[in-house]
Every structure is written in C-alpha cells, then in structure tokens.
Design goal:
This protein is mainly α and 400 residues long. Helix content is 78%, strand content 0%. The chain has 2 domains: 185 residues, Growth Hormone, Chain: A (Up-down Bundle); 197 residues, Growth Hormone, Chain: A (Up-down Bundle).
Length: 400
C-alpha cells in the first residue's frame, strides 16, 4: 500500500470518526432556508425576521469560534464531544416550534458547530499531518455532500414526518447524538493526554496583516454566497413559479456541483504556482451566475450550475488559504480562528440584508444586485489572497 496516497489501517477509525463529525456540521444550517415558507405560515414572522433566523447561526458561528481555544485547555476530544451534545440540544430546542425556540435553538446548535469547525484543522494536523491535503479534501467533500443530502430531504421529510417542518428540522438530532457517542470513548481515553500545552506565540498576529484580512474577507464572502443561496434562493425560485420540491432540487444541484468541484480543486491547486487567478476566476463565476439569475431567470438551472462551480472553488480555496498563507501550524491555528470568526460574522449579514432589501423593495432584483457587487469585490480580494506568500512574511518585511 502506498503510504503517500492512502490512509493506513491504523488511521481508518479516526478517519471514519472525522467523516462522521463532518457529516453533522452542515445539515442543521442548510435545511432552514428550504422550510422558510411553512415556518412563516406557522409563526407569522416577517421576511426580515426569517432572514435573521437564517443569519443567526452564522452570527453565532463567528461569535463562538474563539471557543475553540477550550480544545487546548480540556483536550480536543472532550471539547468536541461537548460541542456535539450542544449541537444535539440546539437542534431539539429549535424543533419545538415557537419563535423563541427557533432562535434559542439556532444559537445553541451554531455554537456547537462553531467549535467543531475550529477544532477539525487541529485534529487533522495532529492525526494526519503527512496527509493533511487529502484528509482536508475528504472533510470538505463530506461537508458538501451532507449539506446537499439535507437540502434534498428537507421538504420531503416535512411531508413525511409528524410535526411537518418541526420534524424535518428535529430529525438531525439523531445523527448528531450518535456522533457524540462515537467520540465519547476517545474523549475519556485521550482527555488526560490532551492536557493544556504551552504553545509558542505566533511571531506576527494575523489581526495586523493585510494578507490575513484578505483571506478572512474571502472566507466571509464564500460563506455569505453559500448561505444566501441555500437560505433565500428557494424562496426566490418559489416566487418565480417553481414548486417547493423543484426549488429544493435546484439547490441540491447547486450543492452537488460544488461538491464535485471540491474534489477536483486539489488536483488543480497542485499544479498552480499560486491561486490568485483561480480565486479571482471563481468569484467572477459567482458574479456572472447571479447576474444571469437577474436577466435570464429561465436558465435558472444553468446559472446554479455555474454558481456551484464558482462557489465550490471558493470554498476549497478559503479552507486551503488557512494553511497556504501560514508558515507553520501555530500561524494556521491563529488564522483559522480569525478567518472563521470574522468571516462568519461578515457572512451573517447576508441573509438578513437579503430579506430586508426584499421587504423594502418588494422585489428580488435589488438584493441580487447586491450579491453581484459583493462577488465583483471578491474577484479582487481573491486575487490578493491567492498570491503565493504567508501573512507573517509580508508583515515582517514591512516592519524591517
């Protein structure tokens, strides 16, 4: 067996546990948008409030990302199990049906997901250091596949399960709880071995680096495009005459295309001297796709395919930039927390503003034009973030 291209048997169990973890980090976020209309009918919330409901998990992802530091104090596995139980509890609370439960549950589940997001790079670096690129690709593919499956099942589950949309949202507590139980033995066994460690300080703070800020903004923009698409595009499509089922299918197509791109991108990146042109091109595809939804809505499937290509490329690039723009794993850890906390806070404004602009204008073209503007800006951000350099080397050069 080729050790460079495969995962040995001794890594099979932690690899399966990591895949199971990744499979639980997106369904709770991507299903709400497809159920907004029945949620609004039951609760009477406005489109702006619905946009806030879509954005709250993203806001919480940004706010709670620094909780990943608890992994150093209590151990990665112990912190991760606590996060998974918090995710499970949040899903159950959100499915109770009241407006208060919707928001409280969304905040709780997002806190659990935020911690999981931040801890995964450390687990990959620790357990799969010599196979980090391959394992990161598997992780990203699992994220995309689970999100696509959840999106495709959201509406059918609301029709099949008792409670309608409540059952469709609550069903995801089952795999989350199972995953927590899978990780629990490792938390008990390894917790004592993961005592607080004294990490070397990063010589340059990413918060003072323009390169790090470009990476962070790129991370935020790709998240914003994705969550606006899965959160609001189903409603846009339904208002244009598509059925709820077909609207969900369009989003599944978008996510499956993005998933395929995430599998192909590592091969492209391996041959590229830097990622500037690729990142700019990915953002350009997103801009053209949204523009197409405005001027040629009859080709919705085509535009969502092209947006899936651009969005999938942006996703894998955003994850790769954390490692590629860092000189060592200490810098990568600090850049990961910065890019995910600030990036998700930026992304959180997307669904809220999208719904607010519709409430103010009573049409969808204005919020879509804002997406075009943001995607155009991301072309230049991606070009800067994709240049072959580390954030510390640029900052130290300026200081010398």
């Amino acid at each position: 067996m080729n050790k460079q291209s495969s995962i040995p048997y001794t890594h099979a169990v932690p690899m399966m546990a990591l895949v199971l973890l990744a499979a639980n980090l997106r369904p709770a976020l991507t299903t709400v948008g497809l159920l907004i209309e029945p949620i609004r009918e039951t609760t009477g919330i406005s489109l702006t409030t619905a946009g806030l409901l879509n954005s709250l998990p993203l806001l919480a992802l940004g706010i709670f990302a620094p909780l990943g530091h608890f992994g150093r104090r209590f151990g990665l596995e112990r912190t991760l199990v606590a996060a998974l139980f918090l995710l499970t509890a949040g899903i159950l609370v959100r499915s109770q049906g009241s407006v208060a439960a919707l928001f409280l549950g969304s905040a709780c589940l997002a806190a659990g997901i935020a911690v999981g997001n931040v801890l995964v790079p450390g687990i990959i670096k620790r357990d799969f250091a010599d196979r980090a690129k391959g394992v990161t690709t598997i992780y990203a593919v699992t994220l995309g596949l689970s999100a696509a499956i959840a999106s495709g099942l959201a509406v059918p589950l609301s029709q099949w399960l008792p409670g309608g949309w409540r059952g469709s949202l609550g069903i995801w507590a089952i795999p989350a709880a199972i995953t927590a139980l899978v990780w629990l033995p490792a938390a008990r066994r390894l917790g004592a071995n993961n005592s607080p460690s004294h990490h070397h300080a990063t010589p340059v703070s990413p918060w003072r680096s323009m390169v790090a800020w470009l990476v962070t903004i790129f991370m935020g923009m790709q998240s914003l495009f994705f969550y606006v698409a899965v959160g609001w595009f189903p409603t846009v499509f339904q208002n244009r005459g598509y059925s709820p089922e077909e609207s969900g299918l369009i989003i599944v197509v978008f996510q499956l295309v993005a998933l395929i791109v995430t599998m192909i991108m590592p091969l492209i990146l391996r041959r590229a001297h830097d990622q500037a042109a690729i990142a700019a091109g990915a953002a350009f595809l997103v801009a053209i796709s949204v523009l197409g939804l405005i001027y040629l809505p009859s080709a919705t499937y085509f535009w969502m395919v092209t947006m899936g290509i651009g969005g999938g490329a942006m996703m894998i690039l955003a994850l790769a930039f954390i490692s590629l723009r860092s000189a060592n794993h200490h810098e990568a850890a600090s850049l990961s927390i910065m890019s995910q906390s600030v990036g998700y806070l930026l992304a959180a404004g997307g669904p809220v503003c999208f719904g607010l602009l519709h409430d103010l204008t009573a049409e969808w073209n204005m919020p879509l034009w804002v997406l075009v503007a943001l995607a155009t800006m991301s072309i230049f951000v991606g070009f800067g973030a994709g240049r072959n350099r580390t954030f510390s080397s640029v900052t130290l050069k300026k200081q010398s």
